[in-house]
Amino acid sequence: MTTPSYVSQVEFDAYCENGQIPSDATQRASALAAAERAVENYCQRKFTVAGASGTTRTFTPDGSDVLRIHDCVAVSAITVDGASVASTSYQLEPVTVGWDGLARPYEQVRYLLGFWYGTTPHKAAVSVTARWDWAATPAEVPEVVKQLGRLHILRRRMGLDDAEYREILAGLNGLRRAEAFGIA
Questions:
Q1: CA–CA distance from 29 to each of 1, 8, 38, 45, 87 (Å)?
Q2: What end-to-end distance do the CA atoms of the chain give, in Å?
Q3: DSSP letter, residue 21
Q4: Which helix (H) or strand (E) holds 78?
Q5: Peptide bond into 105 cis (omega under 30)
Q6: How far apart are CA 24 and CA 149, in angstroms?
Q7: For residues 109 and 69, is the Cβ–Cβ distance under 8 A?
Q8: 145, 34 Cβ separation under 8 angstroms
Q9: Per residue in 122-179, pLDDT tens?
Q10: Cα–Cα dist 139/143, whole Å
Q11: pTM (2 d.p.)
């Protein structure tokens, strides 16, 4: 079983007890893990906080001017087939804070001088060195995880349908990646 990352087991246990949801420790741990997986699957992203140093990940360009990348808070270098790309040649996006005031991570890199190509088609040729993940976990995430975890316990006990589950997840619609909607 994985260690919870958005809500501690102690916090979740207290949440269940305050809501008078009787369950054993194994059931609560399982429900918490299932809720965190559900949030990440629904949003197609993790909401972990970025580390202090960067690491390099490699991506496959598709010949467009936009390269979809994993969530990151800062990019320190980009190379294509080992050749450095000047920071003035690309733009990290989104470029502004969202309408909700939440500082979102960068999700893509727009090449300002043409298109992202490597020397070999379909080869992972673009390397991005960045601090991956979020600056801070959005406040909605732990709250939705707790609600889903509690509902997971109740669904198993009472045979509830998925309508309430979907309604709770809908609270994260503004945090979903474009890939989660089936578009990119």
A1: 8, 10, 14, 21, 45
A2: 32
A3: -
A4: strand 66-80
A5: no
A6: 13
A7: yes
A8: no
A9: 899 999 999 999 999 999 999 999 999 999 888 766 666 677 888 889 889 989 988 7
A10: 7
A11: 0.82
